């Protein structure tokens, strides 16, 4: 499962890396598809990515409650931001999302990598056993974020 | 044909996740799964039935019992769903970035 350990997606935008990074982080609420990609769905009001290591990625719901999706683990503006990813689940079951910004032509390539099965306590054991590690973590993630 | 909805539903239950955890260690019979969990054999059978319907578990006869093991189909459905999830996020980002660029271009043209 070596190539399946990390799920990668990328997109190129016409913004400079500085602007792309700022839009992705400080401007998160402007573009994140909250109605489909949140804990509260239609009851989700807002989402904020607090800047800097230790900052939270947190959703505010219509009833005033908050749902923490993850915590920033890397903050290297305007090149990279990484955060744990555990919407609706305990942090110990979190996976990791890394977003990298690279200058490409007159724009920026934004690559998102979702990984983290190896961070589990049994990661070493999971590595050699199909279905026990990454796939199961994905299951936990999807079961709550879906 | 299992869909990610089946998979999400199947893995939404903590006991079923525990069953998957047990099978991740290797194929097992209903009795062996039940021995590893605080759940009765009939309950384990029921959970295995749901996991099988979701494409997460397969079984084969071994003497007088069935041996259950993890099956890739359901996990692949889930993987496909996650691909779509992040594509949706990045697609929304790119669409917004496009709008931002266009409005900057228009502002430039106006000034």
Report on the structure:
The complex is a heterodimer of chains A (about 150) and B (about 110). With about 150 residues, chain A is an alpha+beta fold. Chain A has a single domain, classed as Alpha-D-Glucose-1,6-Bisphosphate, Chain A, domain 4, CATH 3.30.530.20. Chain A is globular, with a radius of gyration of 16 Å. Chain A starts with 6 loop residues before the first strand and ends with a helix. Chain B has about 110 residues and is mainly α. Chain B has a domain of about 70 residues: Orthogonal Bundle (Arc Repressor Mutant, subunit A). Chain B is built from five helices and two strands, in the order ααααββα. Chain B has a two-stranded antiparallel ribbon with strand order 1-2. In chain B, β1 and β2 form a beta hairpin. In chain B, α1 crosses α5, α2 crosses α4 and α3 packs across α4. Chain B starts with a helix and ends with a helix. In chain B, about 30% of the residues are buried. The mean pLDDT of chain B is about 85. Chains A and B meet through β1, α1, β7 and α4 of A and α1, α2 and α5 of B.
The gross shape of chain A turns out to be globular
Main sheet properties of chain A: 7 strands, antiparallel
Q: Count up the helices of chain A.
A: 4
Helical percentage of chain B:
over 70%
Q: In short, what is this structure?
A:
Chain B: It holds the Pfam family HTH_20. Chain B: InterPro entries: ArsR-like_HTH, HTH_ArsR_DNA-bd_dom, HTH_MetalResp_TranReg, WH-like_DNA-bd_sf, WH_DNA-bd_sf. The complex is a heterodimer of chains A (146) and B (111). Chain A is of the alpha+beta class and 146 residues long.
């Amino acid at each position: 499962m070596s190539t399946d350990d990390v799920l990668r997606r990328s997109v190129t935008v016409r913004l400079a890396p500085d602007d792309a990074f700022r839009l992705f982080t400080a401007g998160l609420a402007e573009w994140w598809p909250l109605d489909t990609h949140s804990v509260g769905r239609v009851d989700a009001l807002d989402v904020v990515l607090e800047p800097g290591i230790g900052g939270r990625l947190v959703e505010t719901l219509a009833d005033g409650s908050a749902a923490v999706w993850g915590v920033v683990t890397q903050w290297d503006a305007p090149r990279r931001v990484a955060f744990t990813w555990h919407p609706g689940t305990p942090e110990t079951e979190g996976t990791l999302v890394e977003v990298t910004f690279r200058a490409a032509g007159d724009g920026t390539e934004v690559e998102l990598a979702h990984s983290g099965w190896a961070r589990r306590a049994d990661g070493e054991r999971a590595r050699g056993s199909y279905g026990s590690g990454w796939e199961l973590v994905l299951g936990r993630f999807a079961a709550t974020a879906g | 044909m299992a869909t990610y909805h089946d998979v999400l539903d199947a893995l939404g239950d903590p006991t079923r996740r525990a069953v998957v955890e047990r099978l991740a260690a290797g194929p097992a019979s209903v009795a062996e799964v039940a021995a590893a969990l605080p759940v009765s054999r009939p309950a384990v059978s029921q959970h295995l039935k749901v996991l099988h319907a979701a494409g997460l578990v397969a079984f084969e006869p071994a003497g007088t019992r069935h041996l259950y093991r993890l099956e890739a189909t359901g996990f692949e459905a889930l993987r496909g769903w996650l691909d779509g999830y992040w594509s949706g996020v990045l697609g929304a980002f790119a669409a917004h970035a496009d709008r931002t660029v266009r409005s900057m271009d228009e502002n430039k043209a106006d000034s």
